[in-house]
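Lecture 7 notes. Example A: sequence first, then its structure tokens.
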Amino acid sequence: LHNPLLIIPQLQSRDNGWHSTSKYLMQALKALSALSEESSSPSLTQLNGMPASDMVKPLLGHQNVESEPNLAPASGSRTIGILGSGDFARSLSMRLVCSGFKVLVGSRNPKRNASLFPSAAEVTFQADVVKKTDIIFVAVFREHYTTLCDLSDELSGKILVDVSNNTEINHNKESNAEYLAALFPACTVVKGFNVISAWTLQSGPRDGNKQVFICSDNQEAKHAVSEIVHKLGFTPIDMGSLCSAREIENLPLRLLPAWRIPVFLALGLFFCFYTYNFIRQVLHPYIRDKKNKFYKMPVEVVNTTLPCVAYVMLSLVYLPGVLAAIFQLYHCTKYKRFPDWLDQWLQHRKQIGLLSFFCASLHAVYSLCLPMRRSHRYLLLSEAVKQVEKKADAWVEEEVWRMEIYISFGIMALGLLSLLAITSLPSISNSLNWREFSFIQSTLGFVALVVSTLHTLTYGWGRAFDENQYKFYLPPTFTLTLLVPCVVILAKLFFHLPCMDLRLRRIRNGWERGRQKKV
């Protein structure tokens, strides 16, 4: 009933006609009028502060809190203190005010910094903030913690939320939160909000990470901070005791930790295939025929290398699944732990697949740019002159069909890879159930590997059996790329045989060899 346009299809489905439409229309209008009366009265979330639906709206508009009644703190709302006047403190105060909290900001120079904060937030001296609040966000750098030692008596019994980060991983022997707890042993220190940027606080959880990692030795303090996290529109993640603060502080400093191995793998494959193609396409004609083919290095050699990397990387996504099936068949159980290298391989399949899609996309762009090169135009004109002189027909039926099929398979493979890449995004995968996600990533992924294999085979055609294609006795590059994918495809087909498929299903359902059923 929130959308009146949805009433008409419902009326059609109920009556299969319009003879009793007026009856249901009157009921719908009564319901809409009741709904409008409910919406005219203030809701509980509106009385408490910012409505829940508005929690994800960005705060970059710099609304005037005094002119917006919903943004002003409600009477009886909890008072939160902030020590510090930097960018993070300003963004945090804005989010707290818009979430219905009363905010006190402690600064060494309140008059100068008051204009930087929302008008609903009270900017005063640090001592006043400590006296009037029980939960205080410490938004200052580690080296400035000692400036708060003069307030140690007033801070006794308070909850201090440390939001600081280091500049390097494991820069100090102890975490910032543990150092703060050592300076103020009478306080309860909670580590949190250090993985949330000032931009995320202003733009809303939809435009940034929603998870807030917190840890503390006091459960009540963690619960209190978790409630604040919820009201700000984020999701608290309990990481345990305060000794976990070191790990939490290292999280924002890590640069794509899950991508390190896949990226090095892709770079290693690119270097190997590029060197191999350089020897065949550039070095061989220069040594044998004294032809200068070095102009091929920036585009043509790269374009020959990219599909090799994409094809092999795609096969490496599904190879660990084959090895895991062999491991389970050999041990006749699913409860035996995989080796560490296989476990790490299985965890990096998403990154390997996305890098495969990236290389395939670059290959498509490079292929479209090949006719634009000046060298290609010169060669095309040269071939045209030769055809005119010989008065021969340049049409080769076999090559025409090979090229048409080869390009068609390539487009289909790139389309399937695009589907795999899109569904691996969290925003898309979260909207799919497990069967849908498994069908796309497993079944359609295997189809993408088969189509890529057909694309490679039609590209090579009969050149694998042409002795002129073996430069320095080196086989064509596409023959090397076929090794791993063909092994994966044959193994997958073998495991889909009824006898093997039944045994694998039994093992994955909990069956073990030598296990006797207890009656």
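Example B, a different protein, same format:
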Amino acid sequence: QDDEMRQELDDDFAAVRALLFDGDESSKPMMKAADGDGNDLDVSYDAAVRELIFEQRARPQDRLKTEDEVIREEKEKLERAERHRQRRMDGLPSDSEPESDDDEGALKKGYDAQSKRAPEADDLGDDFAAADSDEEDNDAGAAGIQLGAGLGADESEDEEDSEEGSDEEEDSGSEDDDEGTDLGDSDSEAEPVSKKAIRPTKTAKVSAASKTTDDALPFTFPAPADYDQWLEIIGDYTLDQQLVVIKRLRTLYHIRLSPQNKEKLSNLCVVLLEHFAVLAEQDPPVPMPVIDEISKHIGELISIDVDRIGEHCRQTVIEIHMRIAAAIKGASGTTEKHMAAPAAMRPSDVALMRLFVSLFSSSDRYNSVITPLLVTMCQFLSQYTFTELNDFTAGLILVGIIHETQRLSRRFVPETLNFLFATLSACVCDPANAKDWHGQFPLSRRQREAYGSLRISEKSATVAPVTWAWLFDTSDEAEISAAQKLGILRSCLVLARKYIDVYFSTPAFIELFTPLQSILAQISDRAGSKMAPKEIVELTGEVASYLDSQLEQAHASRTPLKMQYHKPLAIQSIAPKFESNYSIDAHYDPNHDRNEILKLRRQVNKEKRGAVRELRRDAQFIQAERLKEMREKDKTYADKMKKAWGVLENDQSEMKKLDKLRIKERKAKIE
């Protein structure tokens, strides 16, 4: 039986081996069937086993690493790569690391004695200058060729190596991780300069600059405590390199590596918030992928210390609110049209507001950051006097941000609708005619004149989309073009459509959006095909038809108010009941349970009265016995006192008799 089972396993072994070889019949060792004692079978089996030793898929794989091990390994990779970079800067081979300073000095001497070659690009620092005593170096310096040759030949290799280094930081699973991801190639360093191509000096300088920029990015950085230290770290790095610096900082100071890293990452998050605001102020604007990447890092770091970072964001909102309030107060004191205070809403403020909305919960009834932020935005929309293109652009963006915050909670924010209706009316209405403007809240004459800069007075075939660059247009003398006015009009129509969907379930939907019907009718009549392109005309008609259908449904679903509904009460019947043989002791209640309860209640009362009588009798008897005992005690005491008084009276009488007898005897003697 064992032999049969062993033979069955040998027969199935060929099928198992077929899975390990990718269908290559030539590489499969054929197992010969043994006719006699099975020696050929054993030999072929041993050969197959020895061949499986070299099979890659037959080797056991390493176990999956834990999250802490992966994080620690990534940190060690960065530190090892930084050590290699430092050694390359010192002219030492990067593939070997000394264990002590003595080993490092001996290795450096041996390396210099073994190489005996001219310095190359990776060996030279930024302050390298050729020695005048060397004839070969003098010729190279005079011609300006030899140094450029080394740099020019290494340019492509350096670029490839730097790309590999950056890929290693993003994907920490490459096969060259054990080698430290060197940015330079040791083989290329050992190659003599004379074998490299010769290029002009100008090209060499450009290559050297790019080489310095790529190789000057360390793998380890100190944790920044404030924004000044952050500026010292990033220096002149590009935006992409700054993103790499952020990734490496998060890897080096991960929260799982040490408890002290919590404060460092919290400081990094605050620094990134400040850096985010600085990047948002740059003109031309920073590419959006960079902004999105920094926002992603902030969103992941904010959970480390929510209280501290939340308080920092709250203080930022307070500063923005104070600046807006000061701008509103300063603008209200001016009388001329273009004498407004400095821009109250900066591009960085708008960017931070959008970031805060994505970081904190906006559907809560109260949030320490979002609630003051909403108050600030609403105050800007309702009280600020909009005069320039950047003001209207900021207002449109804030209306979109508020829509994002109220999309789930559907709380009514009147400032948004008032701004949208005023902006739509400004495109076609006369600022001097107050009755021509429609909206929930009336505008002052000064506000209408400020909105008058949006009035469409000339035809334009194009519609300029609202872009982030409009926030930087702060010139007072520049007028808003017709294409920009149409772009603002289109944005207002799109936002109005979104707010119709948000507030459709509101009981006051009819009162809120009825003025919009008149505004859309004015836009269709005054800025129709004569002034606006076909796109605006179609969008206006679409929004108007959608609003009409929604208002019709709201009117159909609305019912008049009614009194509170109460369940009707039955009229109580008071018909008398007569019993021919009525007895006061009988019970005539038809409910048996109530009769039993009443019977038990009367029985309890009866027993209570009997118990009270017994208690009273006992009390009277006890009181009589106590009185009897007291009288006997009083009688005994009275008899005892009477006897005592009798004895005292006898003694007193005897004493008086003796006194009288002495007096008589004394008188008798005198006589």
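Note on Example B: Confidence is low (pLDDT under 50) at residues 25-36, 99-212, 335-341. DSSP finds 22 helices and no strands in the chain.
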